[in-house]
Design brief:
The protein is elongated. The protein has a four-stranded antiparallel β-sheet, covered by helices on one side. The termini are far apart. Helix 6 packs across helix 10 and helix 9 crosses helix 12. It is an alpha+beta fold. The chain contains twelve helices and seven strands.
Length: about 325
């Protein structure tokens, strides 16, 4: 089957405010008879027939330019053709492999001319290269363009590595600077000696220190020395923020017995990172993750983390997950 569609004779400038109107004429060869049709297509935005035609014209412009340079100018948009003629040459079209066939023949021609090509060139690879090269979404969303094309392209990743590393380093530095929670590590007993050590190391009064070592002021991540004067809530009112912000509060005091839960929280956030969209991670979780990592680094090593994680009870794991699901928020 031979189909040709005339390229519209009127093509609007991109900055026109009125809708683009395209008049197209179509010739069809069917059972030896030629039929002619004329259609008016209006570009009124994405999804409209006029917008589709606009994209088709852009995609096929280079073919018409090539024909003109070869001395065979044409105003036709070629949709399909018989190749060398005869039913035996329509197999690619019957199987939906016309593009693959064209690429295969092109490879044979250029290799015969001495051009060094990769072992296998196919439509998907060419599309990926074209989209990464043009640097914008083409027939897909911006999110798909960034995730499936730009982030998978080695040149784009290499070019952006410096900016990404700088951004991560700045985020980590900021998070570490805002870590306010203190650790008094060697306090495990609920006795007067431990209370005195807690009061001295944390700079709190003795009565509060006694309550902390006795476990009466514990939160999911540490202990709170002053619930009514949080760094993140109105003074003299109960704290009303997520327990994740304990790491950025001067009233939060952790002991050695809190480190396993904190290590498990950090691991849970690591798992969450791969389960949410990058934008969600950056907006809701990245700073908390960096701040918790900044708190753990001076007090634990990577080799020691498995031992800490093994010490977390099931009830404590459930508590951490409830916190991350915001079921413990005020």
């Amino acid at each position: 089957m031979l189909k040709k569609m005339d390229v519209p004779t009127w093509w609007p400038n991109a900055d026109r405010e009125d809708p683009a109107v395209h008049q197209v004429d179509t010739d069809k060869a069917r059972r030896g008879r030629r039929r002619h049709a004329s259609n008016t297509l209006v570009d009124v935005g994405e999804g409209s027939s006029g917008r589709v035609l606009r994209h088709v014209l852009e995609l096929t412009a280079s073919a018409r330019t090539t024909l003109e340079l070869l001395g065979r100018p044409s105003t036709k948009l070629l949709v399909g053709h018989r190749g060398l003629g005869g039913a035996e040459n329509l197999r690619d079209y019957e199987l939906g492999k016309a593009l693959d066939g064209a690429i295969r023949r092109w490879q044979q021609q250029v290799r015969a001319g001495g051009v060094d090509l990769p072992a296998r060139v196919h439509a998907q690879a060419l599309r990926h290269s074209a989209q990464a090269h043009h640097g914008r979404a083409r027939n897909n969303t911006q999110a798909t363009h960034e995730r499936d094309y730009q982030l998978q392209d080695e040149d784009v990743r290499a070019a952006s590595r410096g900016a990404v590393e700088l951004g991560l380093a700045q985020a980590l530095a900021f998070a570490r600077q805002t870590v306010a929670m203190r650790l008094v590590e060697n306090v495990d007993a609920a006795d007067e000696v431990s209370a005195e050590l807690m009061a001295k190391e944390a700079g709190i009064d003795m009565e509060v220190a006694r309550r902390i070592v006795a476990g009466r002021l514990r939160t999911p991540v540490a202990s709170c020395a002053d619930f009514l004067n949080s760094d993140h809530s109105t003074a003299r009112t109960p704290c009303a923020v997520s327990f994740l912000l304990c790491f950025a509060c001067r009233n939060a005091v952790a002991t050695g017995r809190d480190l396993p839960r904190i290590a498990y929280l950090h691991q849970a956030l690591e798992s969450l990172r791969s389960a949410v969209k990058p934008a969600v991670w950056a907006a809701d979780w990245a700073t908390h993750h960096a701040r918790i990592g900044g708190f753990l680094t001076p007090y634990t090593t990577t080799d020691a983390r498995p031992q800490l994680l093994a010490a977390v009870a099931d009830s404590e794991r459930e508590l951490i997950h409830a916190m991350l699901e915001r079921r413990l928020d005020p």
